[in-house]
Amino acid sequence: xxxxxxxxxxxxxxxxxxxxxxxxxxxxxxxxxxxxxxxxxxxxxxxxxxxxxxxxxxxxxxxxxxxxxxxxxxxxxxxxxxxxxxxxxxxxxxxxxxxxxxxxxxxxxxxxxxxxxxxxxxxxxxxxxxxxxxxxxxxxxxxxxxxxxxxxxxxxxxxxxxxxxxxxxxxxxxxxxxxxxxxxxxxxxxxxxxxxxxxxxxxxxxxxxxxxxxxxxxxxxxxxxxxxxxxxxxxxxxxxxxxxxxxxxxxxxxxxxxxxxxxxxxxxxxxxxxxxxxxxxxxxxxxxxxxxxxxxxxxxxxxxxxxxxxxxxxxxxxxxxxxxxxxxxxxxxxxxxxxxxxxxxxxxxxxxxxxxxxxxxxxxxxxxxxxxxxxxxxxxxxxxxxxxxxxxxxxxxxxxxxxxxxxxxxxxxxxxxxxxxxxxxxxxxxxxxxxxxxxxxxxxx
Length: 445
Ligand code: PFF
Description:
18 helices, Amino acid/polyamine transporter I, mainly alpha
């Protein structure tokens, strides 16, 4: 019997891939980056990057996974063997599997923090909720023990789902988690738009104001597009292996990208109206925006506590459906060697990631002064993964699929009409590959 696993129906693949894409990147990072990078200019450049880099690279990753029907490393091995390419292309998969664990180690720390806010109820009758909130965030980030506790809980759930496998664990859980996520997000956005300042938000997000456009804004918008779409490290490639044979890649990628962008914008509409309507809150508060600023804003509004809890449940669900995709590529690769059982593999990888996560936790407190090249452990890891590993992974995918694979093979596997195919190939070959080189050199040099 073949041991190839395929998800039933088209929707599971879409939910799983959208689940991977939609995460802290959309609900935590996107709003604070828009807030600190001048609003609409960032949004417009981000949307362009999603279309010209994100779409072709994501389609290529799915194509490789679907063709190989294995972990990214072994799918790349199969592809290069069948097409007589250099056999070292599988290193691209190794790079991605390692990047996944590195990202997961700090992703879980932030996700754990968001998770802890579900249980944090503000005492009533506070004179100064703003002070209380920043004190709370301060005490959370200065306590390694509390951070380790929430990091462990979040990682435990991630490992539990991945341990159950692709069909029972990942497939089933995204079918339950994702509809909740969309319902909660719509509820919080509608609530914020109703009680907050929607007009200023829409102006800020969409009224073109290119005076804020600088090379740094363009670069950070591109980096955010990579991270948000989960491309460049094989997460989407790993899921491509479980895509039903008949599912059409082009249409599916458009749906995933639409959902990811929709959630990022909806998260902006959930957060900014409240920030704009409160004179004490700063739109450019940075990474602390949802942890320090938002709870204060919710505190002073009708049913604010309920919506605050819903909001942090929403972030935790989104983070969980992303974190499982960070662990899957490495897990699938070792599982294919058929030496150790999946559950044991997940346990060992989870343990290694947990230990690595301690470094990020200590960067908030006891190791905050220890730096290398001016960056602490967490910043170093973030820099290494987002600025080096993901762009490099995306660039190599664009070179492999755009330049090295024959047109006949591509056309047969991607199943697009002539016009769609020409546009896809042109963008992948020149625009995506070219702009990734630009990001890479700008951010490294
Ligand atoms: N796309 C996720 C987010 O926006 O939070 C993060 C992520 C998941 C990045 C999986 C990379 C990845 F492979």
